[in-house]
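in:
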């Protein structure tokens, strides 16, 4: 696998600037390993066992913190899209969010037993910065990829993220006190995670280019309002982007199931794998399977199609949900192989679904609306993080765990059949048409500006020169 990832073979073929893709993927490596391990595994265990004396209360507060962070990102997503598209400083904002992730992760080392409010505040702040950074990172995808490489580049980022998790986990276990679950051990992990993020995200600042020039704001709009205005505009013209909108709606439905089953698999591992080494091995195996699945997705999804890849992924999730529903009822201890099978199924689904979903959004998104639609993709994913576990918690409390997992399988089954109504080629053509219209509008504004400031006697020559330039531009776009 390593020779392939180094660019000798498949994933990097046809990519002109491999260094830029590496830099983009390294930020994904830093982000994904930070989230998978530090805020999900180590902080959850530390928070529910050391910070809050009552484990049940700690679990509820940790879940509440995650829901609050997801809700904040949902609210500010239109603002994030406006900053990316209109400020011309998208790379700087990405680097700033990375720096804040480092700061808040390192600050988690200040948390001690009983510091519940401080722990929740820092955890929420770190997760908001991570999720917002993921939105900005996704907005670069159509700029560094072509139609033929977008699936592979998307998979490169996810694969590097899971590889980061595989490397980060054993390295963090070398910190004294982690296995024994001491305060100093967990605090050492948070400091290590901050350093890990700094080292792996640094290539982004060095090699990832800011390709998009700042756009003029529409009349009467500011950076604080234009994002919400554009969402309203897209809603009014939803027929034009109906394939993309349909997929985002379907994505929200099955992402609820994804969030539920990921949380559920972590819960059963934490409940039944009392040995810390077994728990770490469970997460390691899940990440290894997810990385392998994401890598294979990158090799084949551009050939078999992003839609077909998602259908395969949803089939895997349906099987995993049914397998989780077959776990013994509360109070009974399942066979160890059953727990490991659920973890492997979760890994396969994660590896397939993340890369293929992001690539499909990129393929159907006009370049001038990149941040807006990737913001909507992130909004659907984060919204599912609030809706899914909340609905599962209520249902499991009323009807039991098994009924809850059957509902999760129903989410995936509904998404599977709904995907047949999505036609990516139509969505891609709509994106290309919208991009041509946006380019034409830009040309019209240029002509108007030239006419406004040119002497009246020079107006015909200005129009003639502009028409000549526009003709050459159109010819270049056609030949490309």
């Amino acid at each position: 696998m390593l020779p392939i990832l180094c660019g000798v073979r498949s994933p990097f073929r046809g990519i002109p600037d491999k260094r830029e893709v590496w830099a983009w993927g390294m930020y994904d490596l830093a982000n994904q390993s930070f989230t998978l391990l530090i805020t999900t595994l180590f902080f959850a265990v530390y928070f529910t066992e050391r910070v809050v004396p009552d484990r049940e209360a700690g679990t509820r507060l940790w879940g509440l913190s995650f829901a609050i962070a997801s809700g904040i990102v949902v609210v500010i997503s239109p603002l994030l899209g406006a900053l990316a598209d209109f400020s011309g400083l998208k790379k700087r904002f990405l680097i700033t969010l990375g720096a804040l992730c480092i700061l808040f992760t390192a600050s988690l080392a200040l948390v001690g037993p009983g510091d519940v409010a401080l722990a929740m505040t820092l955890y929420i702040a770190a997760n908001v910065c991570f999720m917002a950074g993921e939105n900005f990172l996704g907005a670069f995808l159509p700029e560094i990829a072509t139609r033929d490489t977008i699936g592979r580049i998307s998979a490169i980022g996810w694969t590097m993220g899971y590889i980061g998790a595989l490397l980060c986990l054993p390295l963090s276990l070398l910190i004294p006190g982690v296995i024994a679950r001491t305060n100093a051990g967990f605090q050492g992990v948070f400091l290590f995670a901050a350093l890990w993020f700094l080292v792996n995200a640094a290539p982004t600042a060095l090699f990832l280019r800011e390709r998009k020039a700042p756009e003029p704001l529409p009349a009467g709009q500011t950076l604080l309002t234009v994002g919400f205005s554009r969402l309203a505009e897209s809603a009014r013209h939803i027929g034009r982007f109906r394939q993309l909108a349909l997929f985002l709606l379907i994505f929200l439905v099955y992402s609820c199931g994804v969030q539920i089953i990921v949380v559920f698999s972590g819960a059963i591992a934490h409940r039944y794998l009392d040995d810390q080494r077994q728990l770490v091995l469970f997460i390691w195996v899940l990440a290894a399977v997810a990385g392998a699945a994401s890598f294979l997705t990158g090799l084949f999804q551009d050939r078999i199609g992003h839609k077909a890849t998602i259908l395969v992924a949803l089939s895997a999730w349906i099987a995993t949900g049914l397998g989780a529903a077959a776990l013994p009822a509360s109070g009974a201890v399942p066979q160890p192989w059953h727990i490991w099978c659920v973890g492997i199924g979760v890994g396969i689904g994660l590896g397939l679904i993340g890369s293929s979903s992001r690539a499909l959004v990129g393929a159907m998104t006009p370049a001038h609306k990149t941040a807006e639609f990737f913001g909507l993709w992130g909004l659907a994913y984060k919204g599912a993080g609030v809706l899914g576990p909340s609905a599962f918690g209520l249902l499991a409390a009323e009807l039991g765990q098994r009924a809850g997992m059957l509902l999760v399988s129903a989410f995936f089954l509904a998404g599977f059949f709904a995907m047949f109504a999505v036609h990516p080629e139509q969505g891609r053509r709509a994106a290309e048409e919208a991009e041509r219209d946006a380019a034409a509008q830009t040309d019209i504004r240029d002509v108007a500006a030239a006419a406004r400031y040119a002497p009246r006697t020079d107006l015909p020559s200005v129009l003639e020169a502009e028409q000549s330039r526009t003709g050459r531009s159109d010819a270049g776009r056609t030949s490309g």
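note: The chain has two domains: 16-208+238-422, 439-472.
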